[in-house]
């Protein structure tokens, strides 16, 4: 299962996001242990009431973290358990057919089609689209840290929405396993006979140089996995789901962030399909998953966040303020 997690981290270049969650989990458990040791060696009569609340909140949030790890582990287990090739191929064909039925074209292939009048524009934006797709982990981590520093309640809700988006996606990954258009059709990993019209689209597909380099990156990451490994998390798109969550909570925390996050969101939406990692219907499904997760969290997590999160928020805020002051001092010395 760790191999599967490593695959997704390397594939999406999400090392910074993983480092953020590792730091968050490490801090919370160490803080909980510290509070527990203090409680053991303090006499109850001398123990501050606020310290008791902090210990309880640390314990409850550590349980939530453990639940999160169980959910992630379950997701990795589902991905690491190969579904039948016939089932995967059937789901892939269904999704591709849905694209054609809804949009009139096989959208993943359409971007590089000579019949696409916008092809020169997408070729011009190619490097930007690919960079956007690969930078989601970094942007998401930055938004998490910013929201944590500014508003502990919104951070708590964002964290829950992030976790819930994975939970809501698990049934799709289990019952509707699907490969990306790149693996399902261009590389034909299942090794099945493709429908005639899709086969023609595959034959006519001519990726530009930027996409060719990106496809090499995808292959190099998968080269370290077992031969029977199949990344069946195409439907729904977690890239779009998490970009939606980042946009919502980032803009809610500081409205000015929308000027960066909205264009990033639109580019992510396009890039998910442009890079042959998703079908068009996947992106809309990912957005719906995020909306559902946010709606549930906003309805049931209205109260103040655990005290341990508020404490961490204050510490992060002080740390960022100190860093900002040091940077200002350095700039003044240079001037």
TrEMBL record:
Q: Where is the Inositolphosphotransferase Aur1/Ipt1 domain?
A: 124-295
Q: What is the lineage of its organism?
A: Bacteria, Candidatus Uhriibacteriota
- Extract one GO cellular component term from the record: membrane
The keyword Transmembrane belongs to this UniProt entry's keyword annotation? yes
Which protein is depicted?
Answer: Inositolphosphotransferase Aur1/Ipt1 domain-containing protein
* TM annotation in the entry: 16-37, 58-79, 124-148, 155-176, 240-267, 279-297
Q: Which domain of life is it from?
A: Bacteria
What the entry lists under InterPro entries is as follows: Aur1/Ipt1
Q: Which UniProt keywords apply?
A: Membrane, Transmembrane, Transmembrane helix
Q: Name one Pfam family in it.
A: PAP2_3
């Amino acid at each position: 299962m760790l191999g599967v997690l490593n695959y997704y981290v390397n594939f999406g270049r999400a090392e910074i996001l993983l480092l953020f969650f590792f730091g968050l989990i490490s801090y919370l458990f160490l803080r909980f242990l510290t509070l527990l040791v203090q409680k053991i060696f303090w006499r109850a009569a001398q123990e501050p009431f606020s310290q008791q609340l902090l210990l309880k909140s640390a314990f409850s949030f550590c349980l939530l973290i453990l639940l999160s790890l169980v959910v992630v582990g379950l997701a990795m287990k589902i991905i690491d358990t190969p579904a039948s090739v016939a089932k995967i191929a059937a789901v892939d064909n269904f999704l591709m057919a849905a694209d054609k039925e809804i949009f009139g074209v096989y959208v993943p292939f359409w971007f590089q089609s000579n019949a696409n009048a916008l092809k020169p524009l997408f070729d011009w934006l190619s490097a930007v689209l690919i960079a956007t797709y690969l930078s989601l982990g970094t942007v998401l981590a930055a938004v998490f840290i910013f929201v944590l520093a500014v508003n502990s309640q919104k951070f708590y809700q964002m964290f829950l929405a992030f976790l819930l988006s994975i939970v809501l996606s698990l049934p799709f990954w289990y019952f509707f396993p699907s490969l990306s258009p790149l693996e399902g059709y261009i590389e034909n990993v299942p090794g099945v006979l493709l429908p005639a019209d899709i086969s023609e689209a595959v034959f006519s597909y001519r990726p530009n140089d930027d996409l060719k380099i990106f496809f090499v990156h995808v292959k190099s990451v998968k080269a370290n996995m077992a031969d029977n490994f199949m990344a069946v998390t195409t439907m729904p798109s977690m890239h779009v789901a998490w970009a939606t969550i980042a946009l919502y909570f980032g803009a809610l925390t500081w409205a000015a962030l929308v000027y960066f996050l909205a264009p990033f969101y639109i580019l992510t939406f396009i890039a998910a399909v442009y890079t042959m990692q998703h079908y068009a219907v996947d992106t809309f499904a990912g957005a719906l998953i995020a909306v559902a997760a946010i709606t549930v969290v906003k309805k049931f997590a209205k109260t103040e966040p655990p005290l341990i999160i508020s404490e961490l928020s204050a510490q992060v805020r002080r740390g960022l303020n100190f860093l900002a002051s040091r940077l200002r001092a350095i700039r003044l010395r240079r001037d």
